[in-house]
Amino acid sequence: MSRRWLFADQLGPHFLDDRRQPVLLVESKAVFRRRVFHRQKAHLVLSALRHRAAELGDQARYLRTETYAEALRTVREPVEVHHPTSRAALALVRRLDGVTVLPAKGFVTSLADFADWAGARRGALRMEAFYRFARQRHGVLVEGDEPVGGRWSLDTDNRQPPPKDATRLDVPPPPTPAEDDIDAEVRADLDRWEREGIRFVGRDGPRRFPATGKEAKARLRHFLKHRLPTFGPYEDAMLADDPWMAHSMLSSSFNLGLLDPLEAVRGAEQAYRKGQAPLPSAEGFIRQVLGWRDFVWHLYWYFEPAWRSSNALAARRRVPAWFRELDADAVTARCLADVLAGVRDHGWVHHIPRLMVLGNYALQRGWRPGELVDWFHHSFVDGYDWVMTANVIGMSQYADLGRMTTKPYVSGGAYVNRMSDYCGGCRYDPKQRLGDDACPFTAGYWAFLSRNRERIPGNARMARTMAQLGRLSDVDAVVDQERRRGDRAP
Ligand code: SF4
């Protein structure tokens, strides 16, 4: 039997054919030398890899080397590996002698099924259509070919602002994993690597995310029972004192391969069918996992490699150091300071702070999309090249002019004001675009639209906004103010 090489994001039992199959695990130090990762992300990845080695015992060979190629040179038997998750890793395994590449795992829809679906479509690829296909293909929340409840999307029942006057949602927090000797060893190694000159960003802290299949399953069970019912309505809401809201916080577990996404999808469906969760919550969660997660994975492989370098809005400014280094203390704007502090302290914030605070701010300022892909990849516990290419290039930075979205995800302070409790305690005013109190998001919004009015393709969803822009008498002053603000922390 060939030895199955498992990358650090292929750690669950579903990446093995047989429970006794010989396994190869490689810890490459060069990965951490080449890029500046969040300290807690480096901890999570190493902890998960070493926990898997401990679980497998004699069944696994665990090699600590500088590079993967160096490790593979010491292995004399045939090796097979499931299709890796980045283009660079795929090129590497294809180059190595004696390594057989097997189909991808860890996603619900196969690459072949996606290619068939996408190939048969005319026009742009949209998540909504893919999600419908995946629900039917895998028989999720359907009766015959029709959606349970009569609608494919219950987004309009979700997306609510936070409950009035609440500072936290009324849900128990996700269980925190207990650290053990393996975590202590990882922490000591990372401290030593830092002394040797390997750089990390963010703060160290107790490990908050699952590093084993057992921990991930426990978190899934807890989520389905206690948090899923509240998840749907408030999935897009933000509260300054509640960083987790009712999110599952399972994205890193899916992306490390600890948890089979189909198991989570079926679990959410069951929770609805047993009357333990309302349909909009179950549908909202299933949409994120079966829909969005799979969709961005498939686009990464379906589109040409050059997609990652798209920069159709000519965004040429470097990502400034205060943002890159997570210097939240340098920021006055309350929403941005809080979200950046969340990344610094946990390596995680949920999808709306990523898209509508961090991504929105970067889009308005014209920061380089490629640098942002790297930043999101390295700074988030669940970040990988495949996730962030689509989320940053296609969605948040609109760098491909809408190959996966219908319009740029850009908004002023009104959105943050509606969906959070940030603005009340901020020194800026979300309604102002000009002057000392001007909200940087509101001013940035109009400056962005003005700068890109010729580049953004005319479409019905942008028509009203562009007409409004044309009627603003002070837009030149706003543009000038934003030019003077430059890339200083707001
Ligand atoms: Fe953020 Fe503007 Fe609201 Fe301040 S006023 S919290 S900067 S959106």
- How large is the share of residues in beta strands? 5-15%
Biggest sheet strand order reads 4-2-1-5-6
Which architecture name of the largest domain does CATH use? Orthogonal Bundle
Number of helices: 20
Question: Radius of gyration, Cα only, in angstroms?
Answer: 23 Å
| CA(first)-CA(last) distance | 59 Å
Shape: globular
Indicate the mean pLDDT.
95
Bound molecules: iron/sulfur cluster
- Give the beta-strand count: 9
Order of helices and strands: EEHEHEHEHEHHEEHEHHHHHHHHHHHHH
CATH topology of the largest domain: DNA Cyclobutane Dipyrimidine Photolyase, subunit A, domain 3
Number of domains: 3
Pfam family, one: DPRP
Protein name: Cryptochrome/photolyase family protein
Region (Disordered): 146-181
Organism: Micromonospora cathayae
Question: What is the secondary structure topology, with strand pairs?
Answer:
Layout: E1 3-6, E2 23-28, H1 30-34, E3 37-38, H2 39-56, E4 60-65, H3 68-73, E5 79-82, H4 87-95, E6 99-102, H5 111-119, H6 127-138, E7 142-143, E8 146-147, H7 181-196, E9 200-201, H8 213-231, H9 251-255, H10 261-273, H11 279-302, H12 321-324, H13 334-346, H14 351-365, H15 369-379, H16 385-396, H17 413-419, H18 440-451, H19 460-471, H20 475-485
Parallel strand pairs: 1-2, 1-5, 2-4, 3-9, 5-6
Antiparallel strand pairs: 7-8
Bound molecules: iron/sulfur cluster.
